[in-house]
Amino acid sequence: MTMNPMTFDLFADAEPEQQPRREQIGEQSCVLRGFALPWLDRLLPALEAVLAAAPLRQMVTPGGFTMSVALSSCGTWGWTTDRSGYRYTRDDPQTGLPWPSMPEVFFQLAQAAARDAGFTDFEPDSCLINRYVPGAKMSLHQDKDEKSYAEPIVSVSLGLPAMFLFGGFARGDKSQRVPLLHGDIVVWGGVDRLRYHGVLPIKDGQHSILGEQRINFTFRRSH
Ligand code: MD6
Ligand code: FE
Description:
The protein is of the alpha+beta class.
Protein backbone atom coordinates (compact mmCIF):
# COMPACT_ATOMS: atom_id res chain seq x y z
CA MET A 1 0.00 0.00 0.00
CA THR A 2 1.24 3.49 -0.78
CA MET A 3 0.59 6.23 1.73
CA ASN A 4 -0.85 9.35 0.17
CA PRO A 5 0.71 12.65 1.21
CA MET A 6 -2.40 13.70 3.13
CA THR A 7 -2.25 10.69 5.43
CA PHE A 8 1.44 11.31 6.01
CA ASP A 9 0.73 14.93 7.01
CA LEU A 10 -1.93 13.86 9.46
CA PHE A 11 0.57 11.62 11.23
CA ALA A 12 3.14 14.40 11.35
CA ASP A 13 0.60 16.81 12.83
CA ALA A 14 -0.61 14.36 15.41
CA GLU A 15 2.81 13.67 16.88
CA PRO A 16 3.23 16.73 19.15
CA GLU A 17 -0.21 16.04 20.65
CA GLN A 18 1.07 12.66 21.78
CA GLN A 19 3.34 14.32 24.34
CA PRO A 20 1.64 13.95 27.72
CA ARG A 21 1.13 17.45 29.08
CA ARG A 22 -0.37 16.20 32.33
CA GLU A 23 1.76 13.85 34.38
CA GLN A 24 0.17 12.09 37.33
CA ILE A 25 2.60 11.96 40.28
CA GLY A 26 0.10 10.73 42.87
CA GLU A 27 -3.50 9.64 43.16
CA GLN A 28 -4.64 13.28 43.25
CA SER A 29 -1.46 15.07 42.21
CA CYS A 30 -0.12 16.02 38.82
CA VAL A 31 2.34 18.19 36.94
CA LEU A 32 0.86 20.34 34.17
CA ARG A 33 3.84 20.82 31.87
CA GLY A 34 4.23 24.35 30.49
CA PHE A 35 0.80 25.38 31.72
CA ALA A 36 1.92 28.86 32.85
CA LEU A 37 3.77 29.76 29.64
CA PRO A 38 0.85 31.44 27.82
CA TRP A 39 0.20 33.55 30.95
CA LEU A 40 3.73 34.95 31.34
CA ASP A 41 3.11 38.26 29.55
CA ARG A 42 0.58 39.15 32.24
CA LEU A 43 2.14 37.25 35.12
CA LEU A 44 5.60 38.86 35.20
CA PRO A 45 4.50 42.53 35.32
CA ALA A 46 2.01 41.60 38.07
CA LEU A 47 4.81 39.86 40.00
CA GLU A 48 7.00 42.94 39.72
CA ALA A 49 4.25 45.13 41.16
CA VAL A 50 3.66 42.76 44.10
CA LEU A 51 7.38 42.61 44.92
CA ALA A 52 7.69 46.42 44.76
CA ALA A 53 5.05 46.64 47.52
CA ALA A 54 6.20 43.61 49.54
CA PRO A 55 9.90 42.94 48.88
CA LEU A 56 11.37 39.45 49.05
CA ARG A 57 13.14 38.77 52.33
CA GLN A 58 14.74 35.84 54.10
CA MET A 59 12.74 34.69 57.11
CA VAL A 60 13.73 32.84 60.27
CA THR A 61 12.20 29.50 61.28
CA PRO A 62 10.85 28.92 64.80
CA GLY A 63 14.03 26.90 65.39
CA GLY A 64 16.15 29.98 64.61
CA PHE A 65 17.44 29.04 61.15
CA THR A 66 17.45 31.63 58.36
CA MET A 67 15.74 30.13 55.30
CA SER A 68 17.86 30.04 52.13
CA VAL A 69 14.74 30.91 50.10
CA ALA A 70 13.55 34.53 50.11
CA LEU A 71 9.79 34.97 50.56
CA SER A 72 6.95 37.37 49.97
CA SER A 73 3.19 36.98 49.73
CA CYS A 74 0.07 38.43 48.22
CA GLY A 75 -3.63 37.88 48.83
CA THR A 76 -5.78 38.38 51.92
CA TRP A 77 -3.45 36.18 53.95
CA GLY A 78 0.34 35.88 53.71
CA TRP A 79 2.37 33.01 55.12
CA THR A 80 5.20 34.07 57.41
CA THR A 81 7.61 32.60 59.89
CA ASP A 82 9.70 33.98 62.73
CA ARG A 83 10.95 32.80 66.13
CA SER A 84 7.37 32.56 67.42
CA GLY A 85 6.14 30.18 64.69
CA TYR A 86 4.66 29.62 61.25
CA ARG A 87 1.37 31.41 60.54
CA TYR A 88 -0.78 33.38 58.15
CA THR A 89 -1.08 37.13 58.76
CA ARG A 90 -3.15 39.87 57.11
CA ASP A 91 -0.26 42.35 57.32
CA ASP A 92 3.30 42.14 56.07
CA PRO A 93 5.37 42.24 59.29
CA GLN A 94 8.14 44.11 57.46
CA THR A 95 6.02 47.04 56.20
CA GLY A 96 3.13 46.87 58.68
CA LEU A 97 0.78 47.16 55.70
CA PRO A 98 -1.72 44.59 54.42
CA TRP A 99 -0.11 42.14 51.99
CA PRO A 100 -0.63 43.31 48.38
CA SER A 101 -3.90 42.00 46.97
CA MET A 102 -3.66 39.00 44.70
CA PRO A 103 -3.44 40.12 41.06
CA GLU A 104 -6.42 38.91 39.01
CA VAL A 105 -4.08 37.05 36.63
CA PHE A 106 -2.56 35.09 39.56
CA PHE A 107 -6.01 34.03 40.77
CA GLN A 108 -7.20 33.08 37.31
CA LEU A 109 -4.09 31.05 36.53
CA ALA A 110 -4.35 29.14 39.82
CA GLN A 111 -8.03 28.44 39.29
CA ALA A 112 -7.49 27.29 35.69
CA ALA A 113 -4.68 24.94 36.70
CA ALA A 114 -6.71 23.50 39.58
CA ARG A 115 -9.65 22.89 37.24
CA ASP A 116 -7.40 21.15 34.73
CA ALA A 117 -6.23 18.86 37.54
CA GLY A 118 -9.81 18.04 38.57
CA PHE A 119 -10.39 20.54 41.40
CA THR A 120 -13.27 22.89 40.53
CA ASP A 121 -13.86 26.35 42.01
CA PHE A 122 -10.48 26.71 43.73
CA GLU A 123 -10.46 30.17 45.32
CA PRO A 124 -7.00 30.82 46.78
CA ASP A 125 -6.79 33.52 49.48
CA SER A 126 -2.98 33.34 49.68
CA CYS A 127 -0.06 33.22 47.28
CA LEU A 128 3.38 32.62 48.74
CA ILE A 129 6.22 33.77 46.49
CA ASN A 130 9.51 31.88 46.89
CA ARG A 131 12.78 33.01 45.32
CA TYR A 132 15.63 30.52 45.04
CA VAL A 133 19.15 31.47 43.99
CA PRO A 134 21.63 28.69 43.16
CA GLY A 135 22.28 26.66 46.30
CA ALA A 136 18.93 27.55 47.92
CA LYS A 137 16.71 24.61 48.88
CA MET A 138 13.53 23.68 50.71
CA SER A 139 13.76 20.88 53.26
CA LEU A 140 11.10 18.16 53.35
CA HIS A 141 7.92 19.52 54.96
CA GLN A 142 4.14 19.25 54.98
CA ASP A 143 1.86 22.21 54.26
CA LYS A 144 -0.36 22.15 57.31
CA ASP A 145 -0.81 25.72 58.52
CA GLU A 146 -4.14 26.04 56.68
CA LYS A 147 -7.51 25.89 58.49
CA SER A 148 -8.74 23.11 56.20
CA TYR A 149 -7.04 20.63 53.90
CA ALA A 150 -10.10 20.32 51.65
CA GLU A 151 -8.63 22.58 48.94
CA PRO A 152 -5.69 21.71 46.71
CA ILE A 153 -2.38 23.54 46.43
CA VAL A 154 -1.26 24.99 43.13
CA SER A 155 2.49 25.52 42.69
CA VAL A 156 3.96 27.42 39.72
CA SER A 157 7.64 27.14 38.74
CA LEU A 158 9.46 29.88 36.81
CA GLY A 159 13.10 30.43 35.88
CA LEU A 160 15.86 27.95 36.72
CA PRO A 161 14.94 24.26 36.89
CA ALA A 162 14.44 22.48 40.21
CA MET A 163 14.37 18.90 41.42
CA PHE A 164 11.19 18.55 43.42
CA LEU A 165 10.97 15.82 46.06
CA PHE A 166 7.54 14.30 46.44
CA GLY A 167 7.41 12.04 49.45
CA GLY A 168 4.86 10.16 51.50
CA PHE A 169 3.02 10.81 54.74
CA ALA A 170 6.00 10.31 57.02
CA ARG A 171 9.25 12.26 56.74
CA GLY A 172 11.27 9.09 56.27
CA ASP A 173 9.15 7.69 53.40
CA LYS A 174 10.89 7.33 50.06
CA SER A 175 10.51 10.40 47.79
CA GLN A 176 10.05 10.53 44.03
CA ARG A 177 12.18 13.07 42.19
CA VAL A 178 10.21 15.28 39.83
CA PRO A 179 12.11 17.75 37.63
CA LEU A 180 10.26 21.07 37.39
CA LEU A 181 10.94 23.46 34.54
CA HIS A 182 9.99 27.05 33.72
CA GLY A 183 6.21 27.19 33.24
CA ASP A 184 5.35 23.88 34.93
CA ILE A 185 2.56 23.76 37.52
CA VAL A 186 2.14 21.13 40.22
CA VAL A 187 -1.37 20.64 41.60
CA TRP A 188 -2.12 18.39 44.53
CA GLY A 189 -4.90 17.85 46.95
CA GLY A 190 -7.37 15.31 48.25
CA VAL A 191 -5.68 12.21 49.60
CA ASP A 192 -2.23 13.64 48.70
CA ARG A 193 -2.72 17.00 50.45
CA LEU A 194 -0.44 16.24 53.40
CA ARG A 195 2.40 14.50 51.60
CA TYR A 196 5.94 15.56 52.49
CA HIS A 197 7.76 17.51 49.79
CA GLY A 198 10.83 19.64 49.26
CA VAL A 199 13.27 21.06 46.71
CA LEU A 200 16.91 20.00 46.24
CA PRO A 201 19.54 22.78 46.08
CA ILE A 202 19.11 24.75 42.86
CA LYS A 203 22.00 24.28 40.44
CA ASP A 204 24.02 27.14 38.98
CA GLY A 205 22.61 28.48 35.76
CA GLN A 206 21.14 31.39 33.88
CA HIS A 207 17.55 31.43 32.74
CA SER A 208 16.88 33.42 29.56
CA ILE A 209 14.04 35.45 31.10
CA LEU A 210 14.58 35.35 34.87
CA GLY A 211 18.37 35.12 35.07
CA GLU A 212 20.07 33.37 37.99
CA GLN A 213 16.99 32.42 40.03
CA ARG A 214 13.94 30.23 40.37
CA ILE A 215 10.62 31.80 41.34
CA ASN A 216 7.84 29.63 42.76
CA PHE A 217 4.28 30.70 43.53
CA THR A 218 2.35 28.52 45.95
CA PHE A 219 -1.40 29.19 45.99
CA ARG A 220 -3.49 28.02 48.92
CA ARG A 221 -6.85 28.45 50.58
CA SER A 222 -5.68 29.26 54.10
CA HIS A 223 -9.02 30.22 55.77
C1 MD6 B 1 8.70 25.03 45.73
N1 MD6 B 1 6.97 24.27 47.05
O1 MD6 B 1 8.31 24.37 44.77
C2 MD6 B 1 8.24 24.76 47.11
N2 MD6 B 1 4.16 23.11 48.88
O2 MD6 B 1 9.53 25.94 45.61
C3 MD6 B 1 6.25 23.86 48.09
O3 MD6 B 1 6.65 23.88 49.23
C4 MD6 B 1 4.95 23.34 47.84
O4 MD6 B 1 5.30 23.25 45.49
C5 MD6 B 1 2.96 22.61 48.69
C6 MD6 B 1 2.48 22.32 47.46
C7 MD6 B 1 3.25 22.55 46.36
C8 MD6 B 1 4.53 23.06 46.54
FE1 FE C 1 5.19 23.23 50.67
